Amino acid sequence: MGLPDRHWAFETSPDNMTKEDIKQVVLDIIADIAPDEDLTTVKAEVRLRDQLSLDSMDFLDIVMELRKKHGIEVPEADYVQLASLDSCANYLLPKFQAKSGK
Amino acid sequence: MPDEGLMEACQMSTKPRIVITGLGLTAPNGNSLAEFRANLLAGKARIAVIDVRHMGRHPAGVCDFDATKWQKRKEIRNGTRVGSISIYCSREALGDSGLDWDKVDKSRVGVYLGITEHGNVETENEIHNISQFGNDTKYWTHHHNPRTVANNPAGEVTMNMGITGPHYTIGAACAAGNAGLIQAAQMLQLGEVDIAFAGGVSESIHTFGIFAGFKNQGALGAHEDPTKASRPFDKNRNGIVISEGGAIYVLERLDDALARGARIIAEIAGWCINSDATDAVLPNPERQTECVRMALKRAGMKPQDIQIVSTHATATALGDIQECTALRAVFTDCPETKINNTKSFIGHCMGAAGALELAGNLPSFEDGWVHPTINIDELDPECALPGLVINQPVKVERVNAILNNSFGMLGINSALIVKKYGVA
C-alpha cells in the first residue's frame, strides 16, 4: 500500500462552462479532499460547512485544487465566495470564462 | 565503595515495576503478532521490490495493513504514512490490552514513539510536486507543516484516539524503538502518566534520500532474490534493506495492571542508552559492550540469565562485526543464550526496528521457541557467535529474559531487557 496519490495533472477547463459545470468541478474537488462525505444530497444554496465536515484546511485544499487543476486563483479576500456551491458558481464562472477566452 | 551493579539494581527495584499489557504491530511479513511470529518461526521473509523516485527499483519491506480499519479516508489523505502506521499499531495494541477505553482517563495516557527520522517523505513529495509547476512555491501544500513536525506520528495517534495526555516522538536513529519504550517506562515510573502507548514507527521506504544515502555509503543491500537481500552475518552480505513498519506497546505500572486484571505479556527489567562519541556511522563495540552490561546491571542480571539476544545487525560489512565483538565480550560462557536477528526476514524497519524485533521474540516466553536469523548461506567467521540460531528455529528449555539491542547513527546505543512476568 503506497501513499495517497498527491500528484496532480493540470487539467484544461472546457469552453462554455456553465454554473452547473462549475458546481460539479467544486463537488469533484470536495469528493477528493473529503472522501468520507456523502455528496449526493448537498444543497447548492446552503453553506458547505453547514452540511459537510469541512474545516479551514479543507477550504485551502479547494483553493489549491482550483489553482492546480484549473489555473484559477482565488485571493484570500475572496475565500468567503466559496461558502456554498451557488456562491462558488457565481464567483468562479467569470474566472473560468476569462480563462477560456470567452 | 558500594558495588555499582548492586546500586543500579537497588535503584531499579525501588521504582515502580513496568509491564507490557498490549501490543499492536505491522511488519512487512505480518499485521499482527500471531502472523508475524508464525512467519518468523517458518523462516518466511517478505521483501518487495519497489520503484524509488530517481533511483529505480530496490528491495524494500512494505507493510500491507488496512489503514481504513481505524482511520477515515480524509484522515489518511491529510495525515502521513507513519501517522497511519502509528494509529493502526496503537489501536491494535489497545484492543490487545483489554482496556475499557471509554472508562480510561485520557488525560493520564501518554504516547511516546521512537523515530529514526521524520519529514523527509513529505518534503521530498512537495519538492517533486512544485517541480511540476516550475518550482513555484504557491503550489506547496499547506499540509506540509503539520505533516512534518517531529511529533507528527504521536500527535496523529492522540487525535485519532482522543488522548489528551502528553505525546511526542523520540528521535534516536535506529535505536528509536527501544528508546520509545524506555521513555514510556520512565514516564510511568515518574507518575507522569498511568498508561503509555510506546514503541517505534517508520515510513522510510517512501523517501529516496534514505536509499540514496545508504547506496552512496556503500551500505544498500541488493540481491536478485529480494527475500535474500537482507542477510546479516552472512559472508556475502552487502548492506541494508530499508523497510517500513511499526510496533506499539501498552505499558502500565505493574500494580495498575494487576488491579484491572490485565494479561501481562512481559515485564521491563532493565535498560541502558549510551553514546559512542566516536564516529557518525561506524559503531563502537566498546560502548555497545558497556551499554549491554549496564542494562544487565540495572536488571539485576548476569549474562547467563539472558536466554535470547535479539541483535541489531543490519547486514552491513562492519556493523555486524562490531556488534558481534560486543556480544562476544559480554556473553562468554553462556551456553543457554541464543542469538537471533529479525532484519533477515523484514529488512531494517528503522525507527520501528527495535520495537518490532522485540515483539517477534516475546512469544518465546510461552512457547519456548527461538526464531532464527535466516539467509545465512555462508556464515562470516567474524560473526560466528556461539548460540547464533541459524536458518532454523530451535526449541529451548525455558525463556525467562530477552535482551533487545538497537543501535543507531551518531553512536546511539540502546539495550532493553524484558523478562517473563512472575519469574524472579
Question: In brief, what are we looking at here?
Answer:
The complex is a heterodimer of chains A (102) and B (424). With 102 residues, chain A is mainly α.
Strand order of the largest sheet of chain B: 5-4-6-8-1-9-15-14-10-11
Beta-strand content of chain A: under 5%
- What is the level 1 CATH name of the largest domain in chain B? Alpha Beta
Q: Count the strands of chain B?
A: 15
Number of strands of chain A: 0
Secondary-structure element pattern of chain A, one letter each = HHHH
Give the helix level of chain A as a range of percent: 40-55%
Please, what is the CATH homologous superfamily of the largest domain in chain B?
A: Thiolase/Chalcone synthase
CATH topological fold name of the largest domain in chain B: Peroxisomal Thiolase, Chain A, domain 1
Order of helices and strands of chain B: HEHEEHHEHHHEHEHEEHEHEHEHHHEEEE
- Tell me which oligomeric state these chains represent: heterodimer
Count of DSSP H/I helices of chain A: 4
Which descriptors would you attach to this protein?
heterodimer; A: 102 residues; mainly alpha; Non-ribosomal Peptide Synthetase Peptidyl Carrier Protein, Chain A; disordered N terminus; B: 424 residues; alpha/beta; Peroxisomal Thiolase, Chain A, domain 1; 2 domains; ten-stranded mixed β-sheet; 15 helices; 35% helix
Protein model, in words:
The complex is a heterodimer of chains A (102) and B (424). Chain A is an all-alpha fold. Chain A has one domain: Non-ribosomal Peptide Synthetase Peptidyl Carrier Protein, Chain A. Helices cover 48% and strands 0% of the residues of chain A. Residues 1-10 of chain A have low confidence and may be disordered. With 424 residues, chain B is α/β, with parallel strands linked by helices. Chain B folds into 2 domains: 14-259, Thiolase/Chalcone synthase (Peroxisomal Thiolase, Chain A, domain 1); 269-419, Thiolase/Chalcone synthase (Peroxisomal Thiolase, Chain A, domain 1, 3-Layer(aba) Sandwich). Chain B has 15 helices and 15 strands. In chain B, β14 and β15 form a beta hairpin. Chain B is globular. The two termini of chain B are 27 Å apart. The chains are: A mainly alpha (102), B alpha/beta (424). The interface between A and B is medium-sized, with 19 and 24 residues.
